[in-house]
């Protein structure tokens, strides 16, 4: 798992430029659910990668610390968000003090952790009453071309196209606290075909497939998508799947 979890390092620049961000509605929803503005909040963004979510949290005025294990991803984050403190480490053993954060976030990264460890670690680092927010950009399979692309990828990957269109609910190992809430936030972006293919190719499933199979797949996808989007602009549709839970305010933590 660790090797694949850190496979993004090989494609850090491509990841940073081609992966989608997250819509303002996601951050509005987190503020509404927690009843607290991000501005001035102490946020720990775990599995921060190249800083896609970190930068957006920072733009909302949060006081963010990024945690990232991968050297390539961390190097890119240092360039893209030089003023954000960055700690090298894993969510399973956070190198941070107890009760140091109002909010711990995992943007597309929770599924790489061992939740038996990462959940108590997040609770330890949160102040009592603080919130843990996990989210994923999941491709909207209700859109026919996205469902068809996933079917082609499944065929090539010889099994579940894990990760290429978002991991969805099945891999999450979610917190079971009764106050846990889930929200689905649809959004879309229009990008050049090259950006879409770079985005697709930055997923970990392609590190497993290898260069030759990846090139063959992406070449076929280009031809397929040009038929659908002859002007070369692809509309990617997503649903952000958000799960938010809290550290209890009582003396014990789960
Ligand atoms: C799909 S990327 C998400 C990056 C970023 N949060 C974003 O929204 O683009 C997953 C990140 O999790 C990191 N990662 C892998 N295993 C991890 C672990 N056990 N704890 C924390 N981060 C981990 C990877 O190095 C990678 O940067």
TrEMBL record:
Biased composition (Basic and acidic residues): 168-177
Domain annotation Methyltransferase type: ranges: 44-133
Pfam families: Methyltransf_11
Record keywords, A-Z: Methyltransferase, Transferase
Ranges in a coiled coil: none
GO molecular function, one term: S-adenosylmethionine-dependent methyltransferase activity
Alphabetical list of CDD domains matching this protein: AdoMet_MTases (cd02440)
Location of the region described as Disordered in the Swiss-Prot/TrEMBL record: 156-177
Highest taxon of the lineage: Bacteria
Record GO biological process: methylation
Gene3D superfamilies for this protein: Vaccinia Virus protein VP39
Sequence similarity: Belongs to the methyltransferase superfamily.
Protein name: Class I SAM-dependent methyltransferase
């Amino acid at each position: 798992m660790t090797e694949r979890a850190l496979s993004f390092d090989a494609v850090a620049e491509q990841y940073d430029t081609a992966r989608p961000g997250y819509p303002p509605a996601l951050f509005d929803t987190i503020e509404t659910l927690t009843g607290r503005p991000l501005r001035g909040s102490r946020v720990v963004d775990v599995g921060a990668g190249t800083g896609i979510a970190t930068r957006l949290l920072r733009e909302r005025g949060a006081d963010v610390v990024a945690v990232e294990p991968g050297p390539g991803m961390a190097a890119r984050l240092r360039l893209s968000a030089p003023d954000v403190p960055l700690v090298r480490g894993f969510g399973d053993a956070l190198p941070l003090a107890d009760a140091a954060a109002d909010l711990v976030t995992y943007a597309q990264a929770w599924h790489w952790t061992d939740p038996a460890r990462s959940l108590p670690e997040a609770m330890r680092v949160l102040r009592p009453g603080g919130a843990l927010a996990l989210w994923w950009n999941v491709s909207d399979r209700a859109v026919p071309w996205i469902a068809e692309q996933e079917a082609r990828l499944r065929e090539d990957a010889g099994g579940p196209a894990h990760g290429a269109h978002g991991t969805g609910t099945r891999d999450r190992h979610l917190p079971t606290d009764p106050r846990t809430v889930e929200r689905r936030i649809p959004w879309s972006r229009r990008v050049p075909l090259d950006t879409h293919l770079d985005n697709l190719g930055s997923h970990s499933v392609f590190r497993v497939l290898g260069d030759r199979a990846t090139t063959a797949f992406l070449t076929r996808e280009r031809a397929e998508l040009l038929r659908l989007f002859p002007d070369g602009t692809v509309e990617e549709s997503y649903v952000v799947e958000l799960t938010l839970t809290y550290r209890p305010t009582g003396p014990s933590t789960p």
